[in-house]
Amino acid sequence: MPHYVALIPSELRTDSVEKVCVLLLSAVESPHLTLTIQNIETNSTILRMELPTSTGFNCINFTIGESEMSRHSYNTLLSVSVKGSGENLSVSETKMVVLRRYDSLTFVQTDKPVYKPGQIVKFRIVTLNDRFIPVQEEYPLVTVWDPEGNRIGQWKDLTPRQGIVDLTYDLMPEPMQGSYRIEVLKKQGKVEHSFTVEEYVLPTAELTVKMPASIMMTDPVIHIEVCGRYTYGKPVKGLVNGTVCLQSYNYFASVTYCEHVDGKTDANGCLVTDLSTKSYKFVKRRFTDNVRANFIMVESGTGLHLAAFGETSVNPEISKITFEGVEDHYKKGLPYSGQVRIQYSTGGPVRNASIFLFCSLKPGAEKLTTDENGLASFSLDTTTWGSLPVSFTAIYQGGYLFQNSLPHHKSGHHMVKPFYSRSSSFLSIQKHHQELPCDSQLDVEIHYTITCPTVQEKASLDVFYLVMSRGLIVKLNQKTISVGGSEGLMLLACLWRSPVSINVTLPLPEHLPPCS
Predict the structure, then answer these.
(1) Phi/psi of residue 278, each to 5°?
(2) 3-100: which CATH topology?
(3) 210-315, CATH topology level
(4) Model-level pTM?
(5) Helix, strand or coil, per DSSP, at residue 386
(6) Are 210-315 and 318-418 in the same CATH fold?
(7) Burial, 451: exposed, middle or buried (Cβ in 10 Å; 0-12, 13-18, 19+)?
(8) Nearest CA to 67 among 19, 101, 98?
């Protein structure tokens, strides 16, 4: 019996080439197909076109102008229908979609936010489309306004060079101080940007306190760097004095435990210390902890005082485990594979670690060992899994089973459900997690099982696939595979990798958006 699949995007964009496709499977007689697009709000027909009809993909490209949008609206509801009939097949598919208008975004950027009298204000203007590509948009008028609303500068009919307009404005030696405004008039609307003019004096020196973003309860020391620098980069020599306090909070009270730190700066203008955490007794405190360091530097010779502070949190987790590259469903008979990652709470990978993977359907655990990236792969036999959900637990070296102990290694958990289809056939596209370079190719791995009646001879089977990006159909194609040659149920597991055999190779052109 002939079948069909209609592919209609959920979102259409104005003034953009869109695509609607109908996949006809083994049609004995191709039906007469008509694409109709109607505006729901006005009950008017925007587009009516005839689709080509043949076995396989039948696509048609079209463009909807901005004039079809509802007034003062960025979204318009449309009805897209594909209808047709033949001797052996009747096609009728209707879908509500959104017609959306994407305006370009114009940005104005100054070289700094605050200027002194007499300085030169350097600024640039760039307009980007919804794909963040510069647009050669002309600007009828660009103006600069002072704090009292007086126009003090203007440029007319500006055309970008390589998408960017660069401009400068010379401030008077004694200008009005306050907030100034740059106004860019576009063909539709305008964009504003502000900067400040004031007399200001840069500080002669600055003190900084560097601490790790977080520390573990088991860390023996807290590394602290207190550094003084003049504005021109030379180190400040002087005495440093401060306190490093553990601020503990629970439901009833907050308690502070402090350690005193002092000393002289070195040749680099820094006091570097590794403060022991022993006196803080992290493990015995069963509530939220935060460490704050307050320091004051007194410059030698001048007595100039500089102050600064730093903070870090105390993490009760030594490490945590996460599942990666795993599916939410499994197919009985096909291997279920994935990875577990273990990393310290501070972010680094735990290398050469033993992880025990528990499965709810079998006793015991499978031991995994992580590589230099903290990753360990697994592949499980699903032949006996049946039709029940399966849960997994991954534990670091089998030691820290109780999450309420401090400190602890956080275990990882994942649950999968059985996959169901009326035909009992199954297809799974392997996930790809790495970032891909532009103008390259991606070989996609696809696992599948095909259930069919008794077949004595091999037969061919067409597999259709499409690539979508940001709701748009980018690519459609098909591959032919060979099945059969045995009696009863056939179970196939195949990797589509080699160009010689079955291969799904996806080109990644430069204009393809980051997420597809």
Answers:
(1) -60, -45
(2) Immunoglobulin-like (2.60.40)
(3) Immunoglobulin-like (2.60.40)
(4) 0.58
(5) coil
(6) yes
(7) middle
(8) 101
CATH number belonging to domain 318-418: 2.60.40.10
3-state secondary structure 476-494: EEEEEEEEEEECCCCCCCC
DSSP 170-209: EPPSSPPPEEEEEEEE-SSSEEEEEEEE------SEEEEE
Q: Which residues pair with 230 in a beta bridge?
A: 205
**What is the distance between the alpha carbons of residues 30 and 142, in angstroms, rounded to a whole number?**
59
The superfamily (CATH) of domain 105-197 is Macroglobulin (MG2) domain (2.60.40.1930)
User: Radius of gyration (Cα) for the chain, nearest Å?
Assistant: 33
Phi, psi of 494 (to 5 degrees): -140, 145
428: number of Cβ within 10 Å: 17
The pLDDT of residue 496 = 33
In the predicted model, what is the mean pLDDT of residues 26-46? 79
Domain residue spans of the chain: 3-100, 105-197, 210-315, 318-418, 426-508
Per mean pLDDT, which of 8-17, 263-272, 277-286, 482-491 is the most reliable? 263-272
Q: Are 106 and 125 in contact (CB under 8 A)?
A: yes
Q: What are the strands, taking DSSP E only, across 439-508?
A: 440-443, 446-449, 455-469, 472-486, 505-508
CA distance 306 to 298: 7
**HEC profile for 115-157?**
ECCCCEEEEEEEEECCCCCECCCCEEEEEEECCCCCEEEEEEE
pLDDT in tens, 411-464: 999 999 998 877 777 777 777 766 777 777 777 777 777 766 555 556 677 777
